[in-house]
Every structure is written in C-alpha cells, then in structure tokens.
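Whiteboard transcription, Tuesday session. T.W. wrote the structure tokens on the left side:
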C-alpha cells in the first residue's frame, strides 16, 4: 500500500504558478513526507554549438540547469520557509517522460504529481503527449492536478469496471477502492467516496439483424449484473448503497457527468497502460474518460504492470 510520503512533482517549465507543487504540499501537510520538485530540460542548440568544445558545451548546460534550479527554488520559497521538505532536482535529458519515470523508479517515489492544462471551453482539461506517456507508462500512481481549488463538501469518485468480461477488472476494482479509502483516511478526510460504474445499452444493429432479440430484456439483465457486482464490491468495503451509482451509457459520458453531479474534487480510475498495437486495436476506455474530465485525476495501474521504461544508468 502506497504511503503517499515520497512525492515526485513534475515541474511545468512554461509557467510560474505550479498547481502540482501546491497539491503536493497539501498532501505533505496532512500526511507528512517529502517532495522532490523535478524538471528535465533540453535545448538542442546547446548540443549543436560546434564552435564550442565539449567542455564549454557542458559548462553551458550546467549554467542552464543552475538557472532553472534557482527558478524552481524561487517558486517554492514560501513552502521552504514554512519548513516543507522539498528537494529540487534539474537534469539535462531529451525525453522528459523517460526522465520523469526513471526518477520515479530510482527514487522509489510512491506518487507522481503533474499539472493538467485546461481549456477555456467549460473548464475541460487538455492532456499533452507528455501527460499520456506518464499515464500509460509510469509504474507509480499519477495525480494529474487541475488548477482549481477542491470544492467544499465535494467527493472522491472511484470509476470501477463491473463487466465480467475480463477477470483482472475485479482485482483492479478492489485495488482502486482500497487505495482511495487509504487516501481519504490519510489526506482528504472530509470527502465522501462514491463508486461509479457505467454499462452500455444494446447496439441498435443487433435488434435490426435479429428480430427475436429484445433490447429491453438485454439491458435489464445487464443492469442487474452490474447492480449485483456493485453490491458485492460495496459490501466488501462497508460502503453505504447511497454512495454507489450504476448508470446506463458509455463510461466516457457517464463518469465525467457523475463527477460534475457529485462535485468531485478528484476521480480515481485504473489505467491498463496499453501502448502500441494493443492500444490501437483494443483501445483504452479509461483514456476516453480522461479526455472529458473537469477535475483532478488519480490514475492507478493494476498489479503486475510492467513498466516499459528501463531505470537510468548511474551516470
């Protein structure tokens, strides 16, 4: 079980305000622990300056790293003066997502926090290619932070998959609820925990192609299956029925809508981390949900997840 005491914050180099660092401080103030503010930087021009010697190029890179470290220290000075344990680390690396994940592994960090940018359109969140790499490949839980204060009397929504098509969903659902209850106990005690699941309706083409097929019977049976599965899950954790929700529709619509209805500050969901051909053909349901969220996101991998990024060399 993660203790959320060894936090890595991916610093956004393009803005002075750092919501992810602010959220990490919030966690540490309630749970204890330490923070590492981490920034990988790279500028091809410093490596392509052929008129300079390797020693001179290295000195220039060190100078840029030193400037960025001083900039982060200035960003964090209020927290440092308040006694928050924050380590600042800036490295030269041409693949930010690899550098961040390697730092998670080498530092044995139990939570990665990063800012998620939002659009002007209904406060929706934009996820950058860097965000997607981290969500898919980082072995530690990834907290994507929106630049917004958590709502008063809000909630934490756990998006669970109650279909019985794949057995691994059962174990992942249990892991999501366990980690969320632990998170609530340690950090966000005033927030209610709600379990949300969505089930799809019968495709219309089946009713057309199979005249004897009754869509209403199918939908009722599917809803019944999900209600039974939700009951088993909530009883395992002694969660009251009023905090569980089974809705008809696609997860990418139902879950974001429920997050708004329940004034969620953060939604917790499992992400399988499929990449390449597997992602292209099978898809990632969680990622369709993520695109439409308007609140913080905590993404958790299933047990047995194999990180595709190798640890960094000692040098």
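and on the right, the sequence the group agreed on:
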């Amino acid at each position: 079980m993660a203790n959320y005491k060894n936090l890595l914050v991916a610093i956004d180099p393009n803005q002075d305000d750092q919501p992810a660092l602010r959220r990490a401080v919030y966690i540490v103030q309630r749970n204890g622990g330490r923070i590492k503010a981490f920034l990988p930087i790279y500028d091809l021009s410093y490596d392509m300056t052929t008129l300079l010697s390797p020693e001179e190029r290295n000195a220039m890179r060190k100078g840029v790293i030193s400037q960025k470290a001083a900039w982060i220290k200035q960003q964090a000075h209020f927290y440092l003066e308040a006694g928050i344990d924050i380590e600042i680390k800036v490295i030269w690396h041409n693949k930010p997502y690899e550098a961040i994940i390697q730092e998670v592994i080498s530092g044995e960090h139990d939570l990665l926090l990063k800012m998620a940018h939002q659009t002007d359109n209904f406060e929706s969140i934009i996820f950058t290619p860097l965000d997607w790499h981290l969500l898919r490949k980082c072995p530690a839980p990834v907290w994507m932070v929106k630049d917004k204060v958590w709502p008063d009397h809000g909630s934490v929504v756990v998006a669970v998959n109650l279909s019985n098509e794949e057995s691994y969903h059962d174990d992942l659902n249990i892991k999501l609820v366990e980690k969320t209850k632990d998170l609530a106990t340690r950090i966000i005690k005033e927030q209610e925990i709600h379990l949300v699941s969505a089930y799809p309706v019968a495709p219309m083409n089946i009713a057309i192609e199979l005249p004897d097929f009754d869509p209403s019977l199918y939908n009722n049976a599917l809803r019944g299956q999900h209600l039974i599965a939700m009951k088993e899950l909530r009883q395992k954790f002694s969660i009251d029925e009023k905090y569980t929700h089974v809705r008809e529709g696609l997860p990418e619509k139902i879950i974001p809508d429920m997050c708004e209805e329940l004034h969620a500050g953060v939604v917790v969901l499992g992400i399988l981390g499929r990449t390449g051909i597997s992602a292209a053909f099978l898809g990632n349901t969680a990622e369709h949900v993520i695109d439409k969220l308007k609140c913080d996101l905590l993404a958790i991998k299933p047990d047995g997840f194999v990180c595709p990024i190798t640890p960094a060399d000692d040098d």
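Someone added at the bottom: The longest strand covers residues 34-41.
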